[in-house]
Write a structure and sequence with these properties.
125 residues; mainly alpha; 4 helices; 88% helix; elongated
């Protein structure tokens, strides 16, 4: 069982976490579609702070004997999920950037060819 003063402190921390996320969203430091990941993480933290018995039950379901080991295991698992999600986002952005760079190079070549053709036609006149 979590002592009441610790629970209040953790609730304040979770609320602060949500305020920071909303601040970043307002400042456009985070895109709306990626903010969902951080809101889900905050929601899970909030649920576990308000209902800590849920974590204990979940740990027992997986057969873990010590609560701290279970907490660390779930935290590490959750961090790995967040890292996989962010890696997926970074890979997608990298692929889009590569495509845009290639398209820009093709358009640049077309512009240079058109300028050269226009200059050649102008010289013939």
């Amino acid at each position: 069982m979590i002592p009441s003063h610790l629970r209040v402190t953790l609730i304040i921390v979770v609320v602060s976490y949500f305020l920071v996320i909303l601040y970043f969203l307002k400042q456009k430091a985070l895109n709306l579609k990626y903010t969902l990941l951080w809101l889900v993480a905050g929601g899970v933290m909030g649920i576990l702070v308000v209902v800590p018995e849920l974590l204990t039950r979940l740990i027992r379901i997986f057969g873990i004997q010590d609560n701290m080991n279970g907490l660390f295991l779930f935290c590490i698992g959750f961090i790995i999920l967040i890292l996989l999600s962010l890696t997926s986002i970074a890979s997608r952005q990298n692929r889009k950037l590569r495509t845009l760079t290639q398209e820009l190079a093709i358009l640049d070549k077309r512009v240079r060819d058109l300028e050269r053709d226009c200059a050649a036609a102008h010289d013939q006149e």
